[in-house]
Structure formats: C-alpha cells, structure tokens
Write a structure and sequence with these properties.
The protein is mainly alpha-helical and 139 residues long. It contains 2 helices and no strands. It has one domain.
C-alpha cells in the first residue's frame, strides 16, 4: 500500500475522516439571557400576529354585517320599486279610461272659447248699434 492509502485507512480506524464541522452541528453553549430574549421575541411576535389576525377577522365580520344590511336595504328598495310599478300601471290604466273624457273637455273648452268670442263680438255689435240708435234719436 502507498502511504496515502495507509493514512486514509489509519484515519478510518482512528475514528473516521477529519471533522470539518460539515454534517455535524455543534452547539456552543448559548447564554440563558439570549435564549430568554429569543423566547420573549417569538412570544411578542406571535401576540402581534395574533392581534393582526383578530383585527382582520373583525374587519371581515363588519363587512359581513354591512353586506347583510345592504341586502336588506336593497330588498326593501325592490319592494318599494315593485309597489311604485304597480301604482304606475294603475295610474296609466286610469288615464287611458279618462282619455275620452279629457278629449271631450278639450272640445268643450274650444267651444266655450268660440262662444266667448261670439259673445264679445255680439257685445261690440250691440254697443255700436246702441250708439247709432242714440245718434238717430237725437236728430
């Protein structure tokens, strides 16, 4: 055997290859205060994250309540719109039923306007006739 082969086999017999620290974790002694600080930091971080999550859950609960209220409001608005639609249909129906009477009223209005014009003309004519009669009576 060569000397290199003897060195490797001798190392294996003595306890293996040289310890380089790779593959094995050696933990040096950590002071207790550092460990306590790490635990406290992790605890505080956990509490912070828990608080954030609780805040988010509360936000979602609030959104859920707001959505429920909105659904109720829109439902009420739907019923109101349906009632308005029904009332509008009734009004349109009544208007259609009244349409012939409204046309008659318009015709009567036109007739009254014509009759009023005739009465003014007759009044004007009677005043002229009276004036002529008075002038003839004076002669």
């Amino acid at each position: 055997m060569s000397s290199t082969t003897k060195d490797v086999s001798q190392k294996k017999e003595e306890g293996g290859e040289r310890n380089t620290g790779i593959g094995k974790m050696e933990h040096p002694e950590v002071p207790v205060s550092v460990v306590e600080l790490c635990r406290e930091t992790f605890q505080k971080s956990a509490e912070y994250v828990q608080g954030e999550l609780e805040g988010t859950v509360e936000d979602y609960r609030l959104l859920e309540k707001m959505n429920k209220v909105t659904v109720c409001k829109y439902s009420e608005m739907k019923h109101i719109a349906m009632n308005i639609e029904t009332a509008l249909k009734e009004l349109n129906s009544k208007y259609k039923n009244l349409q012939p009477y409204l046309e008659q009223i318009d015709q009567i209005e036109d007739s009254v306007a014509s009759l009023e014009q005739a009465a003014y003309s007759l009044d004007h004519y009677s005043k002229r006739l009276e004036a002529k009669f008075k002038t003839l009576e004076k002669k």
